[in-house]
Amino acid sequence: MSTEITVLTYAALLQVVQFALMSITANLDVGPGKTMSPRDPSRLGKPVQELLSEKPGRLFRAFNNHFEGLILFTIAVVVVTLGEQSTGFTAICAWVYLGARILYVPAYYYGLAPGRSIIWFVGFLATLFMLLAALV
Amino acid sequence: MTSELSILALYGLLVILTIVVQASFGAAQLGLPYLATARDEGRELSGMGARVERSLNNSVVALALFAPAVLILAVTGATTASTLLAAQIFLIARILYAPIYWFGIPWLRTLVWAAGFLATIYLYLAAL
Fold this sequence. Notes:
The complex is a heterodimer. The model of chain A has no long low-confidence stretch (mean pLDDT 96). Helix content of chain A is 82%, strand content 0%. Chain A has a single domain, classed as Four Helix Bundle (Hemerythrin (Met), subunit A) (Up-down Bundle). By secondary structure, chain A is an all-alpha fold. Chain B is an all-alpha fold. Chains A and B meet through helix 5 and helix 7 of A and helix 1, helix 2 and helix 3 of B.
């Protein structure tokens, strides 16, 4: 298994952890009565994610943001691996991505500014470099 | 690298570009200092910025469907001239989709979206 594929597995597991963090804190916050309902905004007053208080809301947004990051990273890993463009550079990019996305969660939770944006940008650039490396 | 994979990489770059455009609208409309915070206030983009955001969300969904199709074709070696053409149609449709959405052109946006969607469906059928 290439380094990039291994890191992709870790990144997917990170998203599972993020889901658990988000789900547990959100259920403790608004209660399973609301989370297990069909979440109709007409009955809840507004969309369920907007009912969340500060910290669970941050974990929700961090989780949501990682979907976007993860799909781009997945594509980068796929094109690098199948295109046989994997190098030491792309492997480092993959680790940098994972490191940034792990740090992103506490950075969001504690409202680190502009730390969270900088950490996000590092992961974003790592993905961009992998995509570019695949095309070169 | 098969050409379909190159197209996938190019489409990934297009989505990255859309993220940059969205962030630029965010900086202009909501302010960079706000973007850097944990965004607890839930400020929303408006006008063209909101359209960019919706086009980005749609592009991510399209990416999630397009990528597995290309992956399946590449891994099984089922790529043909037709699948390459479908992938090219997808990419062109999605490139057109972005500005058409941002400038709020109705019907044409739906038409271009459908072209990309149908091209993706074709890739799955070709893989089977």
